[in-house]
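INTERNAL AUDIT FORM
Audit reference: QA-55
Scope: verify that the stored structure record matches its stored sequence.
Auditor: D.O.
Record contents follow.
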Amino acid sequence: MAESGAFVEEFDLTQRPLPAAAIHTRVQARMVYVFAHAANMLNEPRYAEIAHSGFEKTARTLWNRREGGWIHAASAHGDVLDVRCDAYDQAFPLLALAHLRRLGMTDADIWIERSLEALDRRLVDARHGGYFEEAPREPSRHLLRRQNPHMHLLEAFLALEEAGWTGNARERATHIVDLFSALAERDGAIGEYFSEDWSTPPPDKDTRQPGHQFEWAWLLDNYARGKGGSSALANRLASFAWRNGIERDPAHPHALFEEVAPDGKLITPSKLLWPQTEAVRYYARRARLGDREAEARANRLAETILSSFVMSGGPLWHNQIDRNGKPLARSVPSRVLYHIVACAADATIAQGGTT
């Protein structure tokens, strides 16, 4: 953590923290989640202390005391820099709070209810379903709808349910699952952007990210498990991502590409770390159920992570490589720890451990 009490958001390639003019809700809350989840998984009091103090700093600095909701950015000392209430940002404090609740945080429920009240009041789209992109909304700005905030809100709602929160987490999750299941049935997989009424976006925005297909697949399976079943749609999304998104040339690192077209044509051939972790996470769960092919895929992707992304000697990583495996990123964003810890937790469970 920095001297200000906020989490460092970015490191250089020599492991030195980079100075930052701003801290951001989605990064700070992700880091609270990282330490809270690790504390629960490893029974490590020191991580719990970091998670609690990190949330206190986040709440003190990034909660909008006038309008409610989490702002986009502030200085490390609390000066508001971007007051937008972004739907994507709102998901991560809720996710962090679910894990803080499991740690016994006494006022976790107060913050959960406060955050959900602001989310409903400021961002719910009662006409078309789902959530608006941001508040306040300016009529002159016609923002495309994104799947990403909804996916992470679904993640947060499921985490709240698992943490024993007694509110309407399942109902909230069902609303998102129903909305995006219909979109996936229509489009074959889950797209990144949509118009306001959830119809298809302009052609240049009609893309698919293999990493997000795996994230959705894991979440849909998790949702279905809560109802005592399994998700056929999850398998379809994962199959689409693997069929169209994985590198098949043995001369290049065996990893998922960033972006493909709806028909599977490659758009962006570079490779980010986080999609690999999401695929490992999904396949690790499938392996636990006895799927040998899933186990082989998870193991091979894990090998790629270690050989092509993790820096020699660790603990940092290359966030992005080109198709040939050459590192492209010049810094290391700490927010990616969110993906790494989630992947490690599920892989541990798949191997017979517990969280």
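Auditor finding: record pair retrieved intact. The chain has a mean pLDDT of 94.
Action required: none
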